[in-house]
Amino acid sequence: MFKLIPNPENPQLPHLEMERLYLRPIERGDAAAMFAYGSRPDVARLGGFPVNQDIKEVEALIVRDQAKTASNLKMRIYAIIDKTSDQMLGTINFNQKIAPKILTMGYVLHPDYWGRGMMVEAGEAMLHLAFEYFSCHKIEMTIYDYNVQSQSVARKLGFTQEGRLRQRLQLDMIYRDALIFGLLAEEWQSRQKV
């Protein structure tokens, strides 16, 4: 089950509803939930980002995200919300524009919800948004070699590993490889017919 819900504040940026989750652009009230997982070293390590040091850092990120204009609305960060509890579990977004119709996707989920298929559910909704609503040609993901959970999510979403950037990130005094995954619109569309 998946549906787009019109966003009265910004019609170009719809909300998305799935079986267990809904997605909406992040809001200032999400800062505490985002800090709860972004301040965890295990989460930051898997995402390849610095550990959040204080909640003001997260609040500043939200303010920057809300300031995005019509030219870069596709890059807005979506909150992943549990429909039952109305609790924010993580975020998902298109975080870089490679070419006019090629975007990269990234996501973060609180560890309490790992292994439950929530990120696959949220990812499927974002891919629908990318290919059906934004008319993208391709979505890419960069996942570090040690993040086997994200590699599994990418494969479940239909992504193919296309390359390896050797020693792309220094982590714990060791350089690690970045794996590049890609999904073409035609591949996504053929999966929808199955």
Could you give a quick summary of the protein structure above?
By secondary structure, the chain is an alpha+beta fold. 31% of the residues lie in helices and 36% in strands.
Explained architecture:
31% of the residues lie in helices and 36% in strands. The chain has six helices and nine strands, in the order βββαααβββαβαββα. It has a nine-stranded mixed beta sheet with strand order 1-2-3-4-5-6-7-9-8, sandwiched between helices.
SSE order and pairing:
Layout: E1 2-5, E2 15-18, E3 21-25, H1 31-38, H2 41-47, H3 55-66, E4 77-82, E5 88-99, E6 102-109, H4 118-133, E7 138-144, H5 148-156, E8 160-171, E9 174-184, H6 185-192
Parallel strand pairs: 6-7
Antiparallel strand pairs: 1-2, 2-3, 3-4, 4-5, 5-6, 7-9, 8-9
Name a few traits of the molecule.
194 residues, globular, alpha+beta, nine-stranded mixed β-sheet
What sequence of helices (H) and strands (E) makes up the elements? EEEHHHEEEHEHEEH
Fraction of helical residues: 25-40%
Alpha-carbon distance between the two ends: 15 Å
Number of strands: 9
Content-based structural category: alpha+beta
The Rg value, from CA coordinates, equals: 16 Å
